Amino acid sequence: MALEDTLAGVPLFSQLKHSDLKRVAKAMVQRRFPKDHVIVKEGDQAVAFYIIDSGQVEVFKGIGEERPQVLATLKSGDFFGEMALLDGYPRSASIRAVEDSECLVLSRWDFLAEVRSSPDIAAGILPVLSQRLREADAELAQR
Q1: Residue 59 forms beta bridges with which residues?
Q2: How far, in Å, CA of 99 to CA of 24, rounded?
Q3: Distance between CA 25 and CA 123 in Å, rounded?
Q4: pLDDT of residue 60
């Protein structure tokens, strides 16, 4: 399966035209992470977006604490770090590989370069980011 086909299956990129998917695919790199490797550390500067190609990761808060709080488990096809593409703020949670995992990684700089070249990319992902924000707000309201 071509990388742009994989990207088309990721909700964040599902609204992009094939030509834009190809552009984004060219900017992505594949990285391997062994089991128990902390991929993203809470508080670190956010510089990249990840799509899980294989394996499983957990999202957690409280790195270094005796009992970190696991917020979610993500699997192949899931993604994390999408806010890094837009704001570059420090990470709000940590991500650890639960098993050997491979991720497709898109740096914030490469993403911004593609958006500047093709504003359709930004227009295609904004509805998905908005929906994720609404879902997070609804979850907070239920607590």
Answers
A1: 72, 95
A2: 27
A3: 17
A4: 95
Residues of the chain short of pLDDT 50, as ranges, are none
Fold of 3-142: Jelly Rolls (2.60.120)
Q: What does the alpha-carbon distance between residue 58 and residue 56 come to, in Å, rounded to a whole number?
A: 7
What is the C-alpha separation between 41 and 90, in angstroms, rounded? 9
pTM for the full model?
0.85
Report pLDDT for 1.
Answer: 64
- For the chain, the farthest-separated pair of C-alpha atoms sits apart, in whole angstroms, at 47
CB 47 within 8 A of CB 107: yes
Tokens of 86: 């837009």
Residues 6+ apart with CB under 8 A from 119: none
pLDDT at 115: 86
Closest C-alpha to 12, from 28, 32, 34: 28
Locate 3 and state its tokens. 């990388």
